[in-house]
Amino acid sequence: MAVAIIDSGGANIASLRCALTRLGCEAELTRDAAGIRAASHVLLPGVGAAADAMRRLRDAGLDRVIPDLRQPVLGICLGMQLLFDRSEEGPAGCLGIIDDRISEMRPGRDRPIPHMGWNRVKVVRDSPLFAAIEDETHFYFVHSFAAAACDSTLATSCYGEVFSAAVSRGNFFGTQFHPERSGPAGGRLLQNFLELGS
């Protein structure tokens, strides 16, 4: 299994690679289009701003490569947001795989932004991504922008408002939370992703 992690810059790469290594998977960090196309599975992590991440993808020509991938692809945190058509953060045009937008979250009393910490995730649509994971399991989030629930939503969470915690469209999947920082449940989700298509 040749697994590629797209080097989009500013990503939480070390902890993701460690989580994959614990699953017996050695993934390659790359911006090489041919290597990404040839991989069995592709991960798109990200931490930071959508406009900056999209600029790095465009500079590497990957904004045209990623939407055409046919193998399982998993966007994590900002990587999930980049799967959408556009983001208010910037604002930025994104990859356009999911025809919806990312919006800024609203702070409230006892609800600072960024949203940082453990939140329950409610599965709203069956998916192999959540196989053997109990509904309303806690996962770890760090984000200031989010997608509202939409046709592509697999799971939701709530932080003052309900938002998409996980999405899918065809062979593309995304989690707003960080599975690599979410303990055994996050490890299970990553294992489920690696088993897609096998």
Structure description:
With 198 residues, this protein is α/β, with parallel strands linked by helices. The chain has one domain: Class I glutamine amidotransferase (GATase) domain (Rossmann fold, 3-Layer(aba) Sandwich). Helix content is 24%, strand content 32%. The chain has 6 helices and 13 strands. A 9-stranded mixed β-sheet has the order 2-1-3-4-13-12-11-8-9. The chain has a 4-stranded mixed β-sheet with strand order 6-5-7-10, with helices on one face. A hairpin with a 2-residue loop joins strand 12 and strand 13. It is globular and about 50 Å long. It starts with a strand and ends with a helix. The mean pLDDT is 95.
Provide the fold topology.
Elements: E1 3-6, H1 13-22, E2 28-30, H2 33-38, E3 41-44, H3 50-59, H4 62-65, E4 73-76, H5 78-81, E5 84-87, E6 92-93, E7 98-104, E8 115-123, E9 137-143, E10 145-146, E11 153-158, E12 162-169, E13 172-175, H6 183-195
Parallel strand pairs: 1-2, 1-3, 3-4, 4-13, 5-7
Antiparallel strand pairs: 5-6, 7-10, 8-9, 8-11, 11-12, 12-13
Short note summarizing the structure:
Helices cover 24% and strands 32% of the residues.
Core attributes:
24% helix, 198 residues, 9-stranded mixed sheet, Rossmann fold, globular, 4-stranded mixed sheet, alpha/beta
Distance between the termini: 10 Å
> What is the CATH architecture term?
3-Layer(aba) Sandwich
Please tally the β strands and state the result. Answer: 13
Major sheet size, sense and barrel closure: 9 strands, mixed
**CATH homologous group name:** Class I glutamine amidotransferase (GATase) domain
Radius of gyration: 15 Å
This entry's quaternary arrangement is: single chain
Report the portion of residues in β strands. Answer: 25-35%
Please, how many helices? 6
- How are strands sequenced across the largest beta sheet? 2-1-3-4-13-12-11-8-9
What is the CATH topology descriptor?
Rossmann fold
Structural class: alpha/beta
Task: Output mean pLDDT.
Answer: 95
CATH class: Alpha Beta
Global shape: globular
Low-confidence stretches: none
Total discrete domains: 1
Helix content: 10-25%
The sequence of SSEs as H and E is: EHEHEHHEHEEEEEEEEEH
